[in-house]
Amino acid sequence: MELDNNNGIGFDVEGEDRISVLTDDILLSILGRVDITTAIRTCVLSVRWKHLPWLLHELTIDVKAFLPVLQPNPIEAEHMDEAMSSLTKVSRSFLANPRSEGPITKLQLKLYLINNYACDVGPLLCEAIDIGIVKDLNLAILDEKEIEDCTEDQMLQQGSVVNGFFSAYPSVFHCLTRLSLYNLCFDEWDINHHLFECCKQLQHLYLSNCDMASRLVWKIDAPDSKLSVLQLNVCLLGRLDVLCLPKLERLDWDTWLCPRAPLSFGVVPSLKELCLICAASNRHRGFVLSDVLNGTTSIHTMKLDFQGEKLWLQPEGKQLTAFNKLRKLSLHGIFVEFNLLWTLVLLEAAPFLEMFDIEVWEHPCEINDSMGIFGERLNPSWKLPKFGSPNNPFMKELQVIGFKPLVQQIEFIRSVMQRAPMLDTILLKYDDPCEDCEKMGILPPRPSMKCVFPKDKDEQDMVVNLLKDGVSSHARIIFSK
C-alpha cells in the first residue's frame, strides 16, 4: 500500500482506497480522535466519507481549532471573531438538523462570548437540547486575557456577559455536566442558584480567576448536587466553606489570598482527593491542617504544594485523624534549604500510607525577586516525633524529586526507611532547571549549589551506601533523570 501525497489516505498499487472499505464504526472511531476541522475536511475525500462526521455521537467543537496555526500572544481580536464565525457555522451544521443516527451523547463546546455570537450559538444549543439532539454538555466559556492583566471592571463585565447568556438560554443548564469559566466576578448573579439548583446534572466545575464581590466567603450548601470535581485556579475568595456536597470526590485549589485557612468542610462523605497549591505571601499567617480537614472521613490522596516559599501549615501532630485512610501523600515545592524531617509528623499520622512523594524546590531565578512579596523563608520548627518502632508497614514507595545528596535529604530518607520496613522502592529523581535558572549565574553560591544530582555509578553507589549504612532495608534505590 502507498500513501497519497495530497490527503494521506492509503491506496494499494492499483489505486484502491483501503481505508474507505472499513466499516462505519471503525471510521467513526478514527474521526473521533481528530479535531472537528479535520473531521469535516474528510467529507471531500469521497462519497463514502461525506456523511460520516454527522454520525459522531461524541463531538468536540473548540473555537481554538479555528484560530491561526501560529497564534500570536495575545490572540488578536479579529482572529477571535473569525474563529467564532467559523464555530457558529459548524455548530449550525451539526445542531440545526435532526439526526437519524441518534443523539449527540456528549458535546464538548468551547467558545468566546464576544460580538453577539451568543445570540447565534445560544438558540442553536437550546433547541438541540430541547429536542433531544444533545444529551450531555461540557461547556467552556473562554477568555484570553492573562490573569495578571485582568482588571476588576473587566471581570465584572465578563460575569455580566456569562450571566446574560445563561439567563437568555436556560435550557443550557438542563444537560450541563461540566462547566469551565474564566476571568469573571460573580457579583451580579446568584452563583449557588445557577450552579447547584439549575445545573442539576453538573459533575465537574472549573473556575479560573473567578471571585466573589469584595472577597466574600463562598458557602456551598447543595445536598442534591451531583458535583464530584471542583477545581479552583487563582480564585481569590474570602474563604470557601463547603457545607454540603455529598457527591464531591475531588477538590483542587491553586492559589488563594486568605491570610489563614482558605476553606472548611461540612458534609463531604465522598471526598477522596484534596490538592492545595499556594506560595505563601507576607499576608499568609498559616493554618492548622486538621481544622481544614475536620468533617472529612475518606481522603486517600492528598497533595500540598508550597511553591518554594514558607510553609502555610502550622505545626501539629496527633490531631490529624483525617490521615487515617490516607494512601498517597505528596508534599511539593519544599524550599531546598529546609530541613525535611518535619514531614515525619505527617508520616506518623498516616499509618496506612503506601506512597510518599516529596519535591524539593530550587529556583535561583526567583529567590531574590520574590522576597518582597513572600517574605523570609523560615526553616520549619515542628516538634518531631520520637522514633520507637516502625509504624508505616504499608508504605511501598518513597519518591524524592529534585534530589541532591544534602545532609537534610540523606537524613530524611534514612528516617523514612527506618519507619517503613516494607519499603520496596526509593526513587530519586533529577529535576530539570528552568530556562531562567540556566541563564543566570549564582553569586554568591548557596550551600545547595555545591551538591549535584549523582549521575555516574560511583556517585550513586556512594549515595546508596550513605542511605543504607546502619539501616535495615531491602528497598531498591533507583536514580532517574
Number of helices: 13
Helix content: 10-25%
Structural class: alpha/beta
Low-confidence parts, pLDDT < 50 over ≥5 residues? 1-16
Mean pLDDT reading:
86
End-to-end gap: 41 Å
Shape: globular
Largest sheet: 14 strands, parallel
> In order across it, which strands form the biggest sheet?
3-4-5-6-7-9-11-13-14-15-16-17-18-19
Radius of gyration, CA atoms, in whole angstroms = 27 Å
Write a compact overview of the structure shown.
With 481 residues, this protein is α/β, with parallel strands linked by helices.
Describe the structure.
25% of the residues lie in helices and 22% in strands. By secondary structure, the chain is an alpha/beta fold. The chain has a 14-stranded parallel beta sheet. The longest helix is centred in the N-terminal third of the chain and has 19 residues, at 77-95. The protein is globular and about 75 Å long. The two termini are 41 Å apart.
Helix and strand arrangement:
Blueprint: E1 2-3, E2 10-11, H1 24-31, H2 36-41, E3 58-62, H3 77-95, E4 106-112, H4 118-130, E5 137-142, H5 152-168, E6 176-185, H6 191-198, E7 204-211, E8 217-221, E9 229-233, E10 239-244, E11 250-254, E12 263-267, E13 273-277, H7 289-293, E14 301-305, E15 328-335, H8 343-348, E16 355-361, H9 364-367, H10 371-374, E17 397-401, H11 407-419, E18 425-429, H12 435-439, H13 457-468, E19 476-480
Parallel strand pairs: 3-4, 4-5, 5-6, 6-7, 7-9, 8-10, 9-11, 10-12, 11-13, 13-14, 14-15, 15-16, 16-17, 17-18, 18-19
Antiparallel strand pairs: 1-2
Pfam families: LRR_At1g61320_AtMIF1 (PF23622)
Organism: Urochloa decumbens
Protein name: At1g61320/AtMIF1 LRR domain-containing protein
